[in-house]
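Hi support team,

I submitted a single chain yesterday and got back a structure, but I'm not sure I'm reading the C-alpha cell output correctly. Could someone confirm the output below corresponds to the sequence I sent? I've pasted both exactly as they appear in my results page.

Thanks,
R.
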Amino acid sequence: MDLERIERAVREILIAVGEDPDREGLRRTPTRVARTFQELFGGLGSDPAKYLTASFSESYDEMVVLRDISFNSICEHHLMPFEGKANIAYIPDGQVVGISKLARVVEDFAHRPQVQERLTSQIADLLMEKVEAKGVAVVIHATHTCMTCRGIKKAGSVMITSAVRGSCRSDARTRGEVMSLLHG
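Hi R., thanks for writing in. Yes, this is the structure output for that exact sequence:
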C-alpha cells in the first residue's frame, strides 16, 4: 500500500474542503488516515483461503454454526464504514475447520472495499470450495453509515443478506433448520 500517496491525497482533500492541513489539529491527520486505510483495507493483499487449508478429519455430519462474528468494512460506494455480525453454518463432509478460521475468513473479506451482498457470497463460496461442505449458509446483519449518517439518514436501519449453498439451499428442511439456527 502506498502510504505516502494516501497522505498526499488526504492533504489535498483537506485543502479542497477549505481546511488548512498545516494547522495543529490536522498536521498529522494525513498520516493517521493513511495508517487507518492500511488497516481497513489490509484484506486486499490477503487470500482468505489460506485459513481453510488445515482441516480435521471428523465423521460429524450435522450442522456447525458460528454466530455473531463481529466485523467492520468499508462501503466501496462512499468509502464509509459498515459494521455488523456474520453468522456462518456449514454441514461437513468428513472435514471440519477450526472456528477461529471462520472468523479470520470474515475478517479478510471484510477488510477491503466491499458491498455486503458480495461479502456474504464470498464467504459462502469459499467455504463450499475449500471445506468441501455438503452445505453452507451465511447471514450477515449490518448497519451502513452511508445510510445512517448521510443521504436518507435512517439511524437504526439494519441490512440483512444471506447466501445459501448446497444442501442448505436444496433441501427445504435443512434450509429451515439452518435459518432457524442462524437467526436465533
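A quick pointer for reading it: The first helix runs from residue 3 to 16. Let us know if anything else looks off.

Best,
Support desk
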